């Protein structure tokens, strides 16, 4: 593995893995605490429509997918706030429609011959310098949001009624979390793929919960744990010539089972 570090694409993959791991750790914590896992799952699959649209329109994948994912997040926020009793129906709807649109756009794209598996299961070794700028910018945006609104986000995450009494704009912060989650899903697709993205947003958080005493420490530990899983997964995939995204999630899942077993024994 050490000789591989001399290659630029491997260096990019390692940097991308760490950046996305901390993005997933921070946003995954908010997703789990706010019980949004199913919502974000719907947004993740709807984002496939953005991939198809970007290919059809000839625009950068990150740009097209981000715009589509943000629209999906805004729709889900509106439905959750105003039609909470029908949320399951709308999640299923946007999940299916997004995937269907993505497939239709790909069918309509003339001369397209790239393997779609790279979007379904990740292509971290194909990360370029522009992708790294996008990932770094998103991490900076998330950190800025936490810097300015951490107490408000904390209040909304753990007790939205109390937050409302304190005159905190609960719908705004709920929507903000969903939008940041949508953007995080877009960058995570590059690393582990659309199919496996929810695992990256939840497995490290489950472990970090037992090691944390606050929301902030939970975010930090989640990012560190996700980074460890990503780096080990990359080494595993390189050593055995396996798909990187699937290897990262496999290492994460095995580690989670080992952690649960240790908890039971303890």
Number of strands: 0
Quickly name the level 1 CATH class. Answer: Mainly Alpha
Rounded average pLDDT: 85
Give the CA-CA distance, first to last residue. Answer: 35 Å
The helix count comes to 11
> In the residues, how many domains can be counted?
1
Proportion in β-strands: under 5%
Q: Give a quick account of the main beta sheet: strands, pairing sense, barrel closure.
A: none
Summarize the amount of helix as a percent range.
over 70%
Oligomer: single chain
**CATH-assigned homologous superfamily:** ABC transporter involved in vitamin B12 uptake, BtuC
Low-confidence stretches: none
CATH topology: ABC transporter involved in vitamin B12 uptake, BtuC
The topology string of helices and strands comes to: HHHHHHHHHHH
CATH structural architecture? Orthogonal Bundle
The chain-level structural class is mainly alpha
> Which term fits the overall shape?
globular
Overview of the structural elements:
The chain is mainly α and 266 residues long. It has a single domain, classed as ABC transporter involved in vitamin B12 uptake, BtuC. The chain has 11 helices and no strands. The chain has helices at 8-33, 37-57, 61-82, 87-108, 117-121, 129-158, 160-165, 170-192, 197-209, 215-240, 244-265. 44% of the residues are buried. The model has no long low-confidence stretch (mean pLDDT 85).
